[in-house]
Amino acid sequence: MKILVTGAAGFIGFHLSERLLAEGHTVVGVDNINDYYDVNLKYARLKELGIGREDAEVFYKETISSINRNFKFVRLNLEDKEELFQLFATENFEVVCNLAAQAGVRYSIENPNVYIQSNIVGFLNILECCRHHEIKHLVYASSSSVYGMNKKVPFSEEDIVDNPVSLYAATKKSNELMAHTYSHLYKIPTTGLRFFTVYGPWGRPDMAPILFADAISNNRPIKVFNNGDMERDFTYIDDIVEGVKRVIEKSVEERGLYKIYNIGNNDSVKLLDFITQMETSLGKEATKEMLPMQMGDVKKTWANVDGLIKDYNYSPNTSLSTGIKEFINWFKDFYIES
Ligand SMILES: NC(=O)c1ccc[n+]([C@@H]2O[C@H](COP(=O)([O-])OP(=O)(O)OC[C@H]3O[C@@H](n4cnc5c(N)ncnc54)[C@H](O)[C@@H]3O)[C@@H](O)[C@H]2O)c1
């Protein structure tokens, strides 16, 4: 299959590209390489995919991977409609997987505009490109944050998600509504995947696992919000990538044009237990700075993944201890020993 992966220099997009290539697919990766977090990490991920920094830095330059001829990277902004249309016109993608977005709940409090540009305008451009080219399936990233302050657990796709508590969540819910419209009007098959706190090697430096690992390794206190009374459905990256791959590869015939699925680990882990596992893997105790709840944050997430199990035989099977060990091994290798 020929697949467009947007956000290919990002955490999930990088892993997904690597996995799709290993399965023999042809992948075109795009990313604007924004500096929301350290760009060196984004370039290092691209290097793993065989794309050198000096090539990746140049906007609109198409670079073929030095390690896999089936991978090509182009730096561009989703907001750049003309360039995006041009790419669709020349590449004839079968499937589009839109992972590019301005992520992060807390950042959206200070920087609302960038969320509207990347997540709304950018997503509209993706939809328009899919509409005007014969795309067999659009798979896109939504988020567990659409559940807002939902108290009923585990979170089900049937739950009402009309009460987002951050602009980030509002843009993700908007994406689901926009996709519905395009599926309905233009018969484009779409799948929204609500990711739940993904962690693992090459993870995001704005998320708790790296923030914690970095602070603990450098003898700094870790910030523990809501006095540690938080629970997350932490999902290991390989389980996520396996689930996304299954959705990309299977025809939508049996399940209908428009679908939304939770993609999590089907479990909720206490934040303090997560920290304990990290302490064990790092061989070091954390100093915890207990803080109140942050604006826009939610106390607990837990995914019901029955829909994905039924339609795609999804089975997340990485234990927390294995996942954290893998993550810490990478963290030490990338940040401490390199
Ligand atoms: N990681 C998680 O736990 C998690 C949870 C819920 C939802 N998600 C969603 O999954 C997707 C991937 O997340 P991630 O963790 O890999 O994030 P990430 O920030 O590592 O990757 C996103 C990539 O998109 C790129 N990008 C942002 N705006 C762009 C634009 N306008 N044009 C082109 N490229 C742009 C960024 O440079 C970045 O490399 C995002 O849509 C995110 O909202 C992630």
TrEMBL record:
NAD found in the keyword field: yes
Domain of life: Bacteria
Cross-referenced SUPFAM superfamilies: NAD(P)-binding Rossmann-fold domains (SSF51735)
Pfam families: Epimerase
InterPro entries given in the database record: Epimerase_deHydtase, NAD(P)-bd_dom_sf
Domain named NAD-dependent epimerase/dehydratase: residues: 3-264
Chain ranges passing through the membrane: none
UniProt keywords, alphabetically: NAD
Coiled coil: none
Gene3D superfamilies, per database record: NAD(P)-binding Rossmann-like Domain, UDP-galactose 4-epimerase, domain 1
NAD is among the record's keywords: yes
Name of this chain's protein: UDP-glucuronate 4-epimerase
